[in-house]
Design a protein that fits this description.
This protein has helices spanning 61-65, 88-101, 109-122, 198-202, 205-213, 259-270, 282-291, 328-341, and strands at residues 31-38, 42-50, 68-70, 73-77, 83-86, 134-143, 155-165, 176-181, 218-221, 237-242, 245-248, 274-277, 294-301, 305-314, 317-320, 352-354. It is α+β, with helices and mostly antiparallel strands and 365 residues long. It folds into two domains: 19-170 and 347-361, Aminotransferase class 4, branched-chain amino acid transferase, N-terminal domain (D-amino Acid Aminotransferase, Chain A, domain 1), CATH 3.30.470.10; 176-325, D-amino Acid Aminotransferase, subunit A, domain 2 (D-amino Acid Aminotransferase, Chain A, domain 2). Helix 2 packs across helix 3 (109-122) and helix 6 crosses helix 8. The longest helix has 14 residues, at 88-101. The structure holds 2-OXO-4-methylpentanoic acid.
């Protein structure tokens, strides 16, 4: 029997934006999930309450030392109107790996999944239906002690908020211009690069701002030691089609274990493509661009879905990828992935999880 959470509903639901007005992560639904952790109780008082501000003391640990972890996953409205989560157990497992790295107490996966399902079910009317839209789900756990010692907090808050979204990048599915970052570093061996934690994102902002001033959407990070090997974009993992092979950097602990990354590799294998997870040097990519074997570049991520890259700039050299257009591999994989998420293609890998009883998990046949 699934745990039933107490729900305090808003007295008056708020007006919802139309699907064609959606951007990313600026509109939130009527409700949120909350629970608290203390040494004596563990996680306690799980509840669904109206979305609203949290009261924090200025001395709250997370504001000073960034002891917090988060996740990003999505719910989709299927062609049959059923609402399904995409691979939530992967995000839950990654959340708990991030939590371990940041000394945040883990969340019981069953409770986590029950919270996701029930919160999304309460706000089911907020799940948009237009192509390219979804309900973005943001679980967060943060250190809540008012205490300036640098040590793990003895209290935490966990919340989940929901946001109806369209594309993450203003470009939508149009190819992005990306600058390869060769001055700043995002992560190094032994660091927190594989964890979804606030500080990783704060540390990437300056490089992102400088790239945007120069006309790029984002930066592509290289390894933090010699800045030779490609890592990730920060808001997404990265993949290259070189010759007939789909290549992406391996998970060595310095980059995020993307759920979309894993799904796209699986779909590419299903399509009969050669797939390799191996170190990819920036020199190899630039050489492949010069000799014409670099066919496509695209990012993969929950927010980014599959975002094609049309231009890469590295040390003053600019390369156009697939003539600045969306390539066939990105287009095909995007189509298959969204059709599975919308229940229009069979869910062969058992990725979709229905949020309400009465709807089978997985898409239609
Ligand atoms: C996601 O893809 O869910 C992310 O968390 C990336 C970014 C929006 C921080």
């Amino acid at each position: 029997m699934e745990l039933e959470l107490p729900v305090t509903r808003v007295p008056q639901p708020r007006a919802r934006p139309r699907d064609d007005q959606l951007g990313f992560g600026q509109v939130f639904t009527d409700h949120m999930f909350l629970m608290d952790w203390a040494v004596d109780t563990g996680w306690t008082s799980p509840r669904i309450v109206p979305y609203g501000p949290l009261a924090l003391e200025p001395a709250t640990v997370t504001l000073h030392y960034a002891q917090s972890v988060f996740e990003g996953l999505k719910a989709y409205r299927g062609h049959d109107d059923a609402i399904r989560l995409f691979r939530p157990e992967r995000n839950i497992a990654r959340f708990n790996r991030s939590a371990e790295r940041l000394c945040v107490p883990p969340v019981d996966p069953e409770l986590f999944l029950a919270a996701l399902k029930q919160l999304v079910a309460v706000d089911r009317d907020w799940v948009p239906r237009a192509p390219g839209t979804s309900l973005y789900i943001r679980p967060v756990a943060f250190a809540s002690d008012p205490d300036l010692h640098v040590r793990p907090s003895r209290t935490y808050v966990f919340f989940i908020i929901l946001s109806p979204v369209a594309a993450y990048y203003a470009e939508g599915f149009n190819p992005l211009r990306i600058r390869v970052e060769d001055r700043y570093a995002r992560s190094v061996r032994g660091g927190t690069g594989a964890a979804k934690t606030a500080g990783n994102y704060a540390g990437s902002l300056l490089a992102g701002e400088e790239a945007q001033e120069a006309g790029f959407a984002q930066v592509l990070w290289l390894d933090g030691i010699n800045q030779e090997y490609i890592e990730e974009v920060g808001s997404m993992n990265i993949a290259f089609v070189i010759g007939d092979e789909l290549v992406t950097p391996p998970l060595t602990g310095t980059l995020l274990e993307g759920v979309t990354r894993d799904s796209v590799l699986q779909l590419a294998r299903d399509e009969g493509m050669q797939v390799a997870e191996r170190p990819v040097g920036i020199a190899e990519v630039m050489a492949a661009a010069r000799d014409g074997t670099l066919r496509e570049v695209f990012g993969t991520g929950t927010a980014a879905v599959i975002s094609p890259v049309g231009e890469l700039a590295y040390r003053g050299e600019r390369i156009r990828v697939h003539d600045g257009q969306v390539g066939p591999v990105a287009r095909r994989l995007y189509g298959i992935l969204s059709d599975i998420q919308r229940g229009r293609l069979p869910d062969r890998h058992g990725w979709m999880v229905a949020v309400e009883d009465g709807h089978a998990d997985g898409g239609s046949e």
